Amino acid sequence: MVSRVERGPVADWFWTIDRLFLGIFILLMGIGLMLSFAASPAVAERLGLESFHFVKRHGVFMLPALSVMVGLSFLSPRQVRRTAMVLLAVSLIMMVLVLFIGVEVKGGRRWLSLAGLTIQPSEFMKPAFVVICAWLFAEHARQPEIPGNLFSVLLLGIAVALLIAQPDLGQTILISTVWGAMFFMAGMPWLLIVVLGGVGVLGVFGAYYTLPHVAGRIDRFLTGEGDTFQVDTAREAIIRGDWFGQGPGEGIVKRIIPDSHTDFIFSVAAEEFGIVFCMALVAIFAFLVLRGLSHAFGERNDFNRLAVSGLVLLLGVQSLINIGVNLELLPAKGMTLPLISYGGSSMTAICVTAGFILALTRRRPEKRAQERGLFRSVSGVPAE
């Protein structure tokens, strides 16, 4: 156990970190590894690989991802901003390169192959984008003559343009939704909310009429016609799981779900562990978001408030989209369940997000002083 009396960096980190947040992130990673044993062997066998190929890789991905999360949690808010700035610049450059030398999978060009590793730059762009936009909003609120809001709109336009070019409408909707929520919390005028909302609706209609694969997915969702094998099979797995599941390793329908270890791992969890387990999983994500927003609402610093809110909403909205697709409440979209689905880029990028959250929610001397001052003002005790 680390002593409270010690003054080293590790001891200071241990006693100032939000240990409940840390525990939730590690718990989700553990659940992801457990579900990888259930979901990935059938996929590996279909591809002619050793049964536990993806399980082993999942475990290998966890080690550097966990190191990234813990390492970033040591940063100060200023260091978080600087790290996010570098990460955003590098990821945007890589997203441009993806359009020319990227690996094409299922009609999308979203990955770069570097030194034998396949990287999805847009995954790393998301947390950096949220942090930098939070900083721009906060700077505009602090000094209105700084056009932070305008710069954030331009940054959103660049990110959206690169995502649509891949094309990746799901990630586009994700970052646009989170950006809009942050802008609202930063004090966006209602007229601008209506205008931007209208632009978003027009963008969806534009994607429907100009991108055939988007139109196909929406049509299949609305009519049920066409190739709906994966979502239909996922629904069957959920129904078969009933309340308490078939038991670990007893799933049958999961074996024929093509992306059971990535986009449809929630359905595997439902078949083997039941609806009750899935409800608990949803509750964990909901608690994660609510705890983050609770932290944010207690912040006096605009940057910390907006950044923490945006980062937890990024995790919450992404999990909502993934689960909504599994339940056939949303059109099919290739989006992972944070910290649970298989994928090196996704897991590492989510751990970057988690590391930023842990860094920004640490109890620092100035925050403790604010809390003591607030307590004295409420209790009537004179401030020192």
UniProtKB/TrEMBL annotation:
GO terms for cellular component: cell division site; plasma membrane. It comes from the Bacteria. The chain crosses the membrane at residues 20-39, 60-77, 83-103, 146-165, 177-209, 273-294, 306-327, 339-360. It is found in: Cell membrane. It is a multi-pass membrane protein. Keywords: Cell cycle, Cell division, Cell membrane, Cell shape, Cell wall biogenesis/degradation, Glycosyltransferase, Membrane, Peptidoglycan synthesis, Transferase, Transmembrane, Transmembrane helix. The keyword Transcription does not apply. Belongs to the SEDS family. FtsW subfamily. This is Probable peptidoglycan glycosyltransferase FtsW. It comes from Peteryoungia ipomoeae. The gene is ftsW.
